[in-house]
Amino acid sequence: MRGVWTVARLDLAVWRRSPWALAVAVVPPLAMLFLVKILTLSVTQQPVALVVQGHGPASQRMASFIKEDDESYLLTVTSLADSKRLLKQQKVAATIVIPRGFDRAVARGHARLEYTLNNVSIDFSDDIRRSVDRSVAQFDAPHLGEGKANPYRVEINQTELRNTNVPFDVYQTMPVLLLLILNVGVLGSALLGSRDHERRTAGFLRLTPLGGWSFVAGRLLGSVLLTGAVLVPTVGWLAWRGSIHPPPGHWPALVALLAATAVLACGIGVLLGAVFKHAATVALATVIVSSYAFFLGGGFTTIAFLPDWLQLLSRAVPTRYAIDGLRQTLFYPDLRGVAASLAFVGAFAFAGLAGAVTALRVQARAA
Amino acid sequence: VRERLRVLWAGARVELELLNRRRLVVALTVLEAITFLVLVSLFGLTGSMAPTALVDLDHGPRAQAFVRELEAAHHSFSLRPMGPAAAKRQIASGRLVASITIPKGFSDDVSAGRTVSLPIVVDNLDTDLTDDIREAVPSAITAFGRHSKFPGVRVVAAERDLIPRDTGYVPYLIVSALALDALVVAGVLGALAITSEFEGRTMLQWRLAPVPQGWLLAGKLLAAAALSLVAVAAATLVVLLGYGVSARNMLGVAATLTVCVAIFTCFGAAAGALIRRTLPVAVLFFGLTLPVYIVSGALEPSRFDGEKLWKLGHASPVYSAVALLEGGFHGLRVTPESTAANAVTLGLWALVAAMLAGTLVRRRTVAR
């Protein structure tokens, strides 16, 4: 045990002298946080110009439905000429025109709400199409969803599964946290392995009276402590801000999952550091492994929503179980499946460590 | 001139020799290029087609017509027909975003002019998906009323598209991801060309070499750029053959990617000269990739995200590169600037990058 602690202390001392390494390890999670913030803007409102040419009450009513829908539109009310200019300059993605004679057309039962769409990609184009359809539905069925009869003869009776919605940026806080664990854990422990090789200190470590497992356990302990030093304040800060707010009684499961994920990340890192010795190789390999572990594990997606073959593939990705467990503890009222997730993460971490020990033994034999 | 070209070739040969010894690094770099395409595709798959249970208890003609409207509701639903019990179980376990039940008697009631209540259960865990469902169901309902020509439906939406056909989200993203590939691959290999000199302590020999240093650097970067171009070409082949995206102007695409590789190789060299260590510079490039990519209009025309982000996007060559690539592949115009303006801007970026690399490498070499 003393040997394990000595290796851990040594690795922590190395890390203390390499602040740049820690700094670059947090760059990808910070970049992901930036991505989430930008997406929060782009997945909600779309910039749209509204031109109201009709002057009657029906035109004003139609305009008011559009103006009030500030969840969907980032609206600029303007003239027809200006709206064309805005569309050309890409200051808006669409222009909606309530034409002259709209009121007369409504009276005849054949009114058209015209809109011109810059449909460069279906992502935001479809958002606008849906929003315009909803505005149109509001005109003839202003009480849609309130259990009243309407001319469309279909009424929405919507039940929400949960009491509250989780905002997009809060929902995506968990992936950012996971990427932080992955990057610091994998990069931190892998870096130590490559450093031993490049500074030729691996030979000294081999001469120490330590077993392969003890050495790996020491390295793992050092890396986990380092990851914890970054993770604990981050989680504390997020909890204080309210970005992490698990249901009552879920904190122990959340902490266990975060700890198990940290061990898993460090286990993968120890293995990568043992297999790929050069710093450049380790850097590229850790970036690639972290990327796949993050995305194929469902870091930015919900695996259950992906095609079947991707769902099957993701079963071999250890982070999938970590992410499933974290989502369950943070967003669902019960802890169903969390124990299984913990077991899978633990099993993958153990497999990673066993691989690292084997790799170190092979190296020692080769030396 | 011949002497300078000889130095250039010597520099390139040295770099190729070094890269030949680091085949694994080269292989990983190419893998990284492909990785970005995969990751971008995964991202593109998540924004639409919410998995939704369809519980049809009616099966009548009106119900079938309504299902067709749900299917056509702007890529909103991936409908999965199932029974009520399965729908309840799957939505509770988080495998579905919503469940739509068409009640028994739907067709008869609608035909008789009665309004039918449509039970919808939404897993409102993530507001992005929940909002899509909230807007998509009324969209399907309006289309149902319009196509059924029900009396009382007085207003319909009349859409006019600026572009004759829609471009799918994954084909849109995958094309702009090639600019990202050039950034990461060329950036890392360009940086590696310089950091290896610092880490191998051979920088001093550069100073002592009786040849123009700039040409030596150009030779090294030329070799790194050539290899990057091979990796980016491999990624482009994946886009063309694997994703089935065809290019309208292949020559323009090739020219854009070549200039991008040149720019990012030079920026990589500049970063390598500044940081002097391989590991941080490689991770840094990866980390900076996402923000640069996003503000450059890779997800949608960046001006739609607001003036501030659009202006910020101009601080990176990826902005012009994405515009040229989207134009070259899909014939889309994603920036207010013209193609010619974007091409000139990219050319200017290449000049700036080359000057920056030359200046920083020379200064850092002297400093060492």
Describe the structure.
The complex is a heterodimer of chains A (367) and B (368). Chain A is an alpha/beta fold and 367 residues long. Chain A has helices at residues 2-16, 19-25, 27-42, 57-68, 80-88, 102-108, 122-140, 168-171, 173-198, 202-207, 212-241, 251-275, 279-296, 308-314, 318-331, 338-366; strands at 46-52, 73-77, 94-98, 111-117, 154-160. The mean pLDDT of chain A is 84. In chain A, strand 1 (46-52), helix 4 and strand 2 (73-77) form a beta-alpha-beta unit. Chain B is elongated and about 95 Å long. Chain B has a four-stranded mixed sheet, sandwiched between helices. In chain B, helix 3 (61-71) links the parallel strand 1 (50-56) and strand 2 (77-81). The relative contact order of chain B is 0.12. Chain B has 368 residues and is α/β, with parallel strands linked by helices. Chains A and B meet through helix 2, helix 3, strand 4, helix 7 and strand 5 of A and helix 2, strand 4, helix 6, strand 5 and helix 7 of B. Strand 5 of chain A pairs parallel with strand 4 (116-122) of chain B.
Characteristic key phrases:
heterodimer, A: 367 residues, alpha/beta, 16 helices, elongated, B: 368 residues, 68% helix
What is the element layout, followed by pairings?
The complex is a heterodimer of chains A (367) and B (368).
Chain A: H1 2-16, H2 19-25, H3 27-42, E1 46-52, H4 57-68, E2 73-77, H5 80-88, E3 94-98, H6 102-108, E4 111-117, H7 122-140, E5 154-160, H8 168-171, H9 173-198, H10 202-207, H11 212-241, H12 251-275, H13 279-296, H14 308-314, H15 318-331, H16 338-366
Parallel strand pairs in A: 1-2, 1-3
Antiparallel strand pairs in A: 3-4
Helix pairs in contact in A: 1-11, 3-9, 4-7, 9-11, 9-12, 9-13, 11-12, 11-16, 12-15, 12-16, 15-16
Chain B: H1 2-21, H2 23-45, E1 50-56, H3 61-71, E2 77-81, H4 84-92, E3 98-102, H5 106-111, E4 116-122, H6 127-147, E5 155-161, H7 169-199, H8 203-208, H9 213-242, H10 250-275, H11 278-295, H12 307-313, H13 317-330, H14 339-367
Parallel strand pairs in B: 1-2, 1-3
Antiparallel strand pairs in B: 3-4
Helix pairs in contact in B: 1-9, 2-7, 2-9, 3-6, 7-9, 7-10, 7-11, 7-13, 9-10, 10-11, 10-13, 10-14, 13-14
